[in-house]
TrEMBL record:
Belongs to the bacterial solute-binding protein 8 family. Keywords: Signal, Transport. Its main location: other. Pfam families: Peripla_BP_2. The keyword Transmembrane does not apply. One of its GO terms (biological process) is iron coordination entity transport. The lineage of its organism: Bacteria, Bacillati, Actinomycetota, Actinomycetes, Pseudonocardiales. InterPro entries: ABC_transptr_periplasmic_BD, Bact_iron-sidero_bind, TAT_signal. This is Iron complex transport system substrate-binding protein. One of its GO terms (cellular component) is outer membrane-bounded periplasmic space. The keyword Glycosyltransferase does not apply.
């Protein structure tokens, strides 16, 4: 009975939002692709939680997971609203990730709060397609998916082991933006070759985050590991040890924990620190004494990838390349 009442409430919210759409700026359809004859069409998309019939040319996309918003904006899709993160650090005052925040602000994307999806807030935006993540703190649960699917066709994607290009390509295929995905990948590949040549490949590489309890090291299955591979670098093989905040470390393949006392396992690899600034890297010389004894620190081969690097998309990857290009001289 409660479920039926909730469903009725959601439908009422959507109906009221539609009625108000003529006068509300947030209800104005964003610029988006249309079929050659303007006719509506759909495509069947198979995703993590089922299948959906999505518009061939979406006009009102809502991101139910903040980690999916950058990839959607990177395809120039009309993202009218998005779930958000907590402001500060990786996010601006709206809760938008800093790498794509300017694009979202310029496009009038509405922040919906988060990271947990607010189903009623999504319904009020009258989406014609909803996109969410299957993993992480902002994941769309099966229960939320059932509710969202009553509002609009919903796609849920597991991006944990996808490069940003693979995710972009998948969303491009699902949402009719194949050409945009291909163009972004091609442009990035050319720049990555140049930056990789400047960095050199004489040393192995380790991509990591630093925590008070240890290190989270990104594997070749991670988006960060794949990016380093595109730069022509070889990831050092590291065995997991200790526990450093990876709540699902027993099943995930994109990162492993390494104990503080095992920093020596990084050897003479160059270090690429995810979600860190240059200032934070300098602080590690005092706060991480074992890490600071590694050759990478003595030889200037520790690279801060910035807060943008924690969730890679087209915008974040471009930002990482700019940082590395500057660091390489």
């Amino acid at each position: 009975m409660r479920q039926a009442s909730r469903r009725a409430a959601l439908l009422l919210i959507a109906a009221l939002g539609l009625a108000a759409g003529c006068s509300s700026p947030s209800a104005t359809p964003a610029d988006g692709p249309e079929g050659a004859d303007g006719a509506a069409g759909t495509r069947t998309v198979t995703h993590e939680l089922g299948t959906a019939e999505v518009p061939a040319a979406p006009q009102r996309v809502v991101s139910a997971s903040v980690t999916m918003t950058g990839p959607l904006l990177g395809l120039d899709l009309p993202v009218v609203a998005t779930a958000t993160s907590r402001p500060g650090g990786v996010a601006d005052d709206n809760g938008f990730f800093v790498a794509w925040a300017p694009r979202a602000v310029d496009g009038g994307t509405v922040p919906l709060g988060g990271p947990t999806v607010d189903v009623e807030a999504v319904a009020a935006q009258q989406p014609d397609v909803i996109v969410g993540s299957a993993v992480g703190a902002d994941a769309v649960t099966p229960e939320a998916y059932a509710q969202l699917s009553e509002i609009a066709p919903t796609i849920v994607v597991n991006h944990s082991e996808l490069s940003w290009q693979e995710l972009s390509g998948r969303l491009g295929t699902d949402l009719g933006r194949e050409a945009e995905a291909a163009a972004a990948e091609q442009a990035f590949a050319g720049r990555a070759t140049e930056v990789g040549a400047a960095l050199g490949a004489a040393h192995e590489a380790v991509a990591l985050t630093v925590t008070p309890d240890g290190y989270n090291v990104f594997t070749a299955d991670s988006a960060q590991g794949k990016l380093l591979g595109e730069l022509g670098l070889t990831l050092r093989t590291i065995d997991p040890s200790g526990a450093s905040g990876l709540g699902d470390s027993g099943t995930r393949k994109d990162a492993i924990p390494v104990a503080l006392e095992n920093a020596g396992d990084f050897g003479d690899a160059s270090l690429f620190v995810v979600n860190a600034t240059d200032e934070q890297v300098q602080q590690y010389r005092e706060r991480q004494p074992l890490l600071a004894t590694l050759p990478a620190f003595a030889e200037g081969r520790v690279y801060a990838l910035g807060p943008e690097s924690f969730r890679l998309d087209r915008f974040a990857a471009d930002s990482v390349l700019k940082r590395l290009q500057t660091a390489a001289g």
